[in-house]
Each structure stands twice: as C-alpha cells, then as structure tokens.
Design brief:
Order of helices and strands: HEEEHEEEEEEHH
Shape: elongated
Oligomer: single chain
CATH class of one domain: Mainly Beta
Number of strands: 9
Radius of gyration: 23 Å
CATH topology of one domain: Umud Fragment, subunit A
Distance between the termini: 24 Å
Number of helices: 4
C-alpha cells in the first residue's frame, strides 16, 4: 500500500508541475515519428503562443513550430490522403527550415526532421477522381505556412510522459485491475488473520 501511495504522490506532483508550467504555455503530446530523433511519440512539448515571428530561428537547428492543422497543406494541393491518419484538429509540429517574406507577410517553410522533404513538396497536379490522380514531387516548391496558421513555438520538452495520454484507456484499465488485485489480497489477508485468532 505504501508503494501505491508513493506512486500516487509522485504522479500527482508531476501532474501539478505540468499544470503550473502550462498556465504560461500549452502542452501538446507528440503522436507521430515525423520529428524523430528530436521528438518521440509520447513526448510532451510546451508551446509558447506569444512568440515574435521575427525571432523564430530557421534552418537545420531552427525552432520547432506548431501549425494549427494540416488544412494549409491540403488547401495548397497536398493530397489529403497523406494526413488520413490524423484528426483534422491535431496540430502539425515541425521544424522551421526557412523563412520567406511575401508581400510584407512572413511565411515559414517547415519540415519534420524524420521526413525526406519539406511540408507541401508533394502535390496533386491533376485530380479527377479517387481512382486516378497525378501527383508531383517538387522539393523546391514547399507550401509556405503563414504566421496566422502557427499556434506557437516549442519552448520545452518532457520525454515520454505523454504516453499516459496516448494509452490512457489501456493504462487506466491496468491500474484498476492491479488495484482490485491488491484490494482482494489485502482483504484475504485480513480475513485469513481473523480465522486464526
């Protein structure tokens, strides 16, 4: 019982610390391998929403940005099937590799560290039906992401703790089962002691 109590205290301490940090930044759980080795599935990133676009670093070690969702890419010709595994509300978390100014507006070119091309380099050329479409790969023509589509930039990373969210259903069932077993054993021991008195 002491172990369970200690684990509960540790879990709630970590949870409280995350809540305090997240009052200034929002936490997001990494759900794909697109940013490996920098970010892994289950890592939690804290995102600063109050960022200055002029201060965003770009390049191979540029800042990691959080883009609203994949609609900016689909609206610019990227096949929606590339994002079929994502819910439309899930943000894209990729690195800023370039910055462009187009008509006095700032845009960023983004890329997942584990992806071979920048975001938006693969586009439909001709889409007539689901059965037939022509797709082009042009690594020199990525989709520029406007600042308005960027939620914020990653300011800190907590490894693996997001696995609790990803596997919440499974984990809670396992925790419930373990607690039930401990309770049954504890009750059996108490009953067993009473029988021998």
């Amino acid at each position: 019982m002491r172990v369970i109590f200690s684990c509960s205290i540790i879990f709630f301490s970590i949870f409280s610390a995350i809540m305090i940090i997240s009052s200034t930044c929002s936490p997001y759980v990494i759900m794909s391998e697109s940013m490996e080795p920098a970010l892994h599935i289950g890592d939690v990133v804290f995102v600063d929403h109050d960022f200055d676009p002029d201060e965003i670093k770009f390049g191979n070690d540029g800042d990691i940005l959080v883009i609203e969702n994949y609609s900016i890419f689909v609206d610019n010709g990227v096949p929606s099937s590339f994002y079929a595994h994502l819910d439309g509300r899930i943000p894209i978390i990729h690195r800023a590799i370039d910055k462009r100014v187009i008509g006095n507006k700032i845009y960023f070119i983004t890329k997942g560290d584990n992806n071979p091309y920048a975001d938006g380099c693969i586009k439909y050329i001709n889409w007539t039906s689901p059965a037939y479409s022509l797709i082009e790969l042009n690594s020199s023509d990525p989709v520029p992401v406007p600042v308005e589509s960027i939620i914020g930039k990653v300011v800190s990373i907590v490894p693996l703790i997001g696995n609790f969210k990803i596997h919440a259903g499974t984990i809670s069932i396992h925790i419930f089962a373990v607690l039930c077993i401990i309770l049954i054993i504890d009750l059996w021991k108490k009953r067993h002691r009473l029988c021998y008195r």
